[in-house]
């Protein structure tokens, strides 16, 4: 389980996160929603170790990791796809995928190669292996970015706005692939998402953030999207 207990974070002297409690069980899908600027991306970066925690704890599989470096957390099973995808545009698709392999260091049972399932989930990764990532469409880049995260063989996959700027047909393909990631690989998913139809179709539970705090949580099956739409409006 991934579990946050009273997590706080700041930028300099300015607090950004205030006592965040959140958990994601094995193979569960959880969505984090809220307006722009409420701290969602900061929370994901705090979980992965890219932004420091100023208080509270982050537990990964029962171990306290809030003081661990980002690469250590990656080797422990955390994978992160940032908003904007974070690909190396001058490198080929295959070279981008290979960048995920260092996260397998120290895992005795892990094969240091791109898993065949990545190509099965996202055929674009094989079909355009030799093409520069920067020359791909937004939807293609997102598939490569998720594929690179899966190369690390994670237990928890964090996604920041995975549907942003992507055409509906590709969004559907990504949802199908992520569903297989959960069911076949038993990977849990925590996603920040503004597209409620996608979030509610995919996720089991949701958290709402406002001004750096969690203000509501529940199950997507029991909560219609219109009941939380007010948290996204300007």
UniProtKB/TrEMBL annotation:
One of its GO terms (molecular function) is ATP binding. Pfam families: ABC_tran. CDD domains: ABC_TM1139_LivF_branched. It comes from the Bacteria. SUPFAM superfamilies: P-loop containing nucleoside triphosphate hydrolases. Keywords: Amino-acid transport, ATP-binding, Nucleotide-binding, Plasmid, Transport. InterPro entries: AAA+_ATPase, ABC_transporter-like_ATP-bd, ABC_transptr_urea_ATP-bd_UrtE, BCAA_Transport_ATP-bd_LivF, P-loop_NTPase. Coiled coil: none annotated. Residues 2-232 form the ABC transporter domain. Belongs to the ABC transporter superfamily. PANTHER family: HIGH-AFFINITY BRANCHED-CHAIN AMINO ACID TRANSPORT ATP-BINDING PROTEIN (PTHR43820:SF5), HIGH-AFFINITY BRANCHED-CHAIN AMINO ACID TRANSPORT ATP-BINDING PROTEIN LIVF (PTHR43820). This is Urea ABC transporter ATP-binding subunit UrtE.
């Amino acid at each position: 389980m991934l579990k946050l207990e009273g997590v706080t974070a700041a930028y300099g002297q300015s607090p950004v996160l205030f006592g965040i409690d959140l958990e994601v069980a094995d193979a569960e899908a959880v969505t984090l929603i809220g307006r722009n600027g409420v701290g969602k991306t900061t929370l994901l970066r705090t979980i992965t170790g890219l932004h420091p925690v100023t208080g509270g704890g982050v537990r990964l599989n029962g171990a306290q990791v809030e003081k661990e470096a980002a690469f250590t957390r990656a080797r422990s099973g955390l994978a992160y796809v940032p908003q904007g995808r974070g690909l190396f545009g001058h490198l080929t698709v295959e070279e981008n995928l290979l960048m995920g392999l260092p996260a397998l260091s120290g895992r005795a049972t892990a094969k240091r190669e791109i898993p065949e399932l990545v190509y099965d989930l996202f055929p674009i990764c094989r079909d355009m292996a030799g093409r520069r990532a920067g020359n791909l469409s937004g939807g293609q880049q997102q598939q490569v970015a998720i594929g690179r995260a899966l190369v690390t063989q994670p237990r928890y996959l964090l996604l920041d706005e995975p549907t942003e700027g992507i055409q509906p047909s590709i969004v559907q393909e990504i949802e199908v692939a992520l569903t297989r990631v959960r069911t076949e690989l038993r990977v849990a998913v925590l996603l920040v998402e503004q597209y409620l139809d996608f979030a509610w179709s995919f996720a089991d539970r949701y958290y709402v953030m406002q001004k750096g705090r969690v203000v509501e949580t529940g199950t997507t099956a029991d909560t219609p999207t219109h009941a939380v739409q007010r948290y996204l409006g300007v």
